[in-house]
Amino acid sequence: MKFFSLDPDVKVLLPDGSTRHLTDYLLPSALLMLAALMLMISMFLPYWSMTMHAPQYPKGLRVDVYLNHLEGDMFEIDELNHYLGMPTLDAGGQLERSISFFAVVALGLLLIAGVFVHNQWAGVLALPVLSFPLAFLADMYLILYRYGHSIDPTSALGGAVKPFTPPLLGEGTVGQFGTVAAFGIGFYLAVGAVAVVLAGLWFHRAAYKPIVDARKRIASSGKATRA
Amino acid sequence: MKRLISLLLALSTVLAACGGNSAATPAAGGLPADAAAVAADRGLTADDVYAALKTYTPSGQLDPYIMFASGGQGGQVLVIGVPSMRILKLIGVFTPEPWQGYGYGGSSDAVLEGGYMPNGDELTWGDTHHPNLSETNGDYDGQFLFINDKANARLAVIDLRDFETKQIIKNPNAINDHGGAFVTPNTEYVIEGPQYAAPIGWEYATQAEYKDKYRGLITFWKFDRAKGRVDESKSFQIELPPYWQDLCDAGKGPSDGWFFCNSFNTELATGGAEQGLPPFEAGTTKNDTDYLHIFDWKKAEQVFQAGKAEMINGIAVIGLQTAIDENILYFAPEPKSPHGSDVTPGGEFIVVGGKLDPHVTIYSFDKIQQAIAAGGLDKDAYGVPVIPLDKVMEAQVELGLGPLHTVFDDKGYAYTSLFLDSAVARWTLGGPYASKHPEEPWTLVQKLPVQYNIGHITAAEGDTASPDGQYVVALNKWSIDRFANVGPLLPQNFQLVDISKTGDQMKVLYDMPIGMAEPHYVQIIKADKLKPFEVYPEVGWNPETMSVDPNAITTAEEARVERNGKNVEVWSTVIRSHFTPEWVEVNAGDHVVWHLTNLERTRDATHGFTISGYNINLSLEPGETQTIEFDANKAGTFSFYCTEFCSALHLEMIGYFLVKP
Ligand SMILES: [Cu+2]
């Protein structure tokens, strides 16, 4: 238990004999674990949403995209889109949603592994998390592109609407609908996790680089002695 | 008039000088110039402008009150917003109603059949009279609506979750009724009072047998709230003298457990103008008083449950002698050929309109109890104890000619319709209500002319334990010159009256023509007490059972046609803008059972379904499942299509029903 106390008198002795404060080592670990927690929480929050407005829908129609499911008026949107022969909203991104839980858990575990890896490989372990928001956006764009380009020309209104890509962010129009796409709080939490990871890696480097360097010096001097 | 307009113009000039933007600023403090110009152009008075502002309801704004009106001879119920007086809906009840697919092939056929004559003869209309909302502790709870058919002595139950009629019962022992439907304070019973006496079960009896064989009959229908249906096996009737009992009301608060009906033929007049006898209209009005009927219904319930009743045509009837012996029934005189029997909000008094006497007579429930306890009462010709009027009367208020019905507000005022005077009388209650209004108790405050011949009257929640005030509606039988001439059959005139101010400040706000029948009673409930479905709760909902139908299907993939000998069963889905399947073929003579499920979940996405030439039309509301059953007795090519304009491709929502010769 004494190890976890932040008693300023407790010092860490480095291999080269210099000493460091205990907090220098706790901070990067705490930040990486915080980022893992943020990612886990983001699972339960929407990453992206589209709201559609038309005269006959005074409350609008809305879909919230979570990592593992969709919420909102998919039934009605699917019903309207069947006139264009488009697939259901649920059909896009099925693989991603089915593996999302395990993927996020894996990302979190990589971050926690980083806590126990006291060298530059911790940064490599964090790379998937750092690229996660961008990967989400790229995948979302792909899903939207495929969706807007799957109009069936033999459907009731398929001949009347050209293929399109619904905007990933901001306003667009489809038929009598004005659409507004926006990122959700889950996505912002994931972006926040990236920032926290970056800060964690900064302090990780600050804490462990002296140890790595000290080891290198000892190793090279040992080699020199033996030689 | 001219002065008003110049005042309005002056005000608008001031506003314009202030640089007010009439489009953006709220219309307060004076009329904008363009509005003042309209008022001047149309010759509107200050009262007219006030009335317009009190009733005009901008698009998208909802009415704070909902009025349920009997549809009169139309056999329906009208749903009307107050104060806008816009008709929101017509509910088919005793009459088939095609828009709702009511009586055109769906499960509602069975509801209508429930109201057929015992021998199976169809009745396809009703003379709807008195709608009554279900109550909890004497207040409307917004769950159910009941209404009677005077012509055929029937009662209907409407479920306010979907505003549809769920049950019609033909009274097995009465052939007409009037005093229905009235509920007890917790809707334990829905009471159907009688009207024109007839032998029990309307068996044949001659005019000469009137006194001995003709009877009044009051029915206490037990309401099973959980099932949303009347339970006939737990209902009972009480045999009464043939006095033509009329309107009724249940006691509440201190008078809970009691029930009061007026009557108007204690003369036992039998008419017979063609025989040189006084016609009914003269014979029934000879006596100075008739009898207020006072029932101890809780006692009657015990007597029924103790088995002291005779089963007649499948329902228990408490005989008149039993009712007398068990202290269920008492009379008190009431002047003269009275109408209306209305209990005050707190349950202390019963108000009876004189009809042919210019007074309303107010009975004290306390005094009724004391007189009954004191005993020593005289009996009438049938042996019913009669409490002398001076022992039970609290007050009499002279209102004018033809007082009929009375309703109440939250300020201690009562409102009585005066048929002959064509007026609404506002008068003050005494007792615990005296401190609520500035005037003396039991006095006439204002007589407001209405156009014309007012029958019933209603006030916002005005017959409950906690009336709202604000509005009265006068149900005028004649409209004469109020509306454009539409031929010799004229609309009725519902007049909205502002009662928000005390004293003699009542004002007529709005005339609403009812051009479809002659409604009788109406009730007004606070709109926020109603919690109807927006769409049916689940796909496959059966509105009769209020649960998912075993024959519902939830995807087009399950749609199919199955043949079993000469029986063909079809499962269809319905969604914008197609039926699945679109082709259905049977052989002539096949019996067809066709289940249709509307898969929609969006509000207002209703579809219809008709098969041309087969007199079938359904309304399939979002989530609803309906089953039709018919014989394919005509060979040929028939289209079926959606009868609701549901979508841009509504015309394309069709299919073919082929009947192979
Ligand atoms: Cu349709």
Textual characterization of the structure:
The complex is a heterodimer of chains A (227) and B (661). With 227 residues, chain A is α+β, with helices and mostly antiparallel strands. Chain A has one domain. Chain A contains six helices and seven strands, in the order E-E-H-E-E-E-H-H-H-H-E-E-H. Chain A has a five-stranded antiparallel beta sheet. A two-stranded antiparallel sheet of chain A has the order 1-2. In chain A, strand 6 and strand 7 form a beta hairpin. In chain A, helix 1 packs antiparallel against helix 6 and helix 3 packs antiparallel against helix 4. The radius of gyration of chain A is 25 Å and the shape is elongated. By secondary structure, chain B is mostly beta strands. Among the domains of chain B are: 54 residues, no CATH class; 212 residues, YVTN repeat-like/Quinoprotein amine dehydrogenase (Methylamine Dehydrogenase, Chain H, 7 Propeller); 120 residues, Sandwich (Immunoglobulin-like), CATH 2.60.40. Helices cover 12% and strands 39% of the residues of chain B. In chain B, the strands form eleven sheets. Chain B has a six-stranded mixed beta sheet with strand order 8-9-10-11-16-15. In chain B, strands 35, 36, 37, 39 and 42 form a five-stranded mixed beta sheet that branches. In chain B, strands 38-44-43-40-41 form a five-stranded mixed beta sheet, with no helix packed on it. In chain B, a hairpin with a 4-residue loop joins strand 24 and strand 25. The relative contact order of chain B is 0.09. The N terminus of chain B is likely disordered. The chains are: A alpha+beta (227), B mainly beta (661). Chains A and B meet through helix 2 of A and loops of B. The structure holds copper (II) ion. The site of copper (II) ion has 6 residues of chain B, from loops.
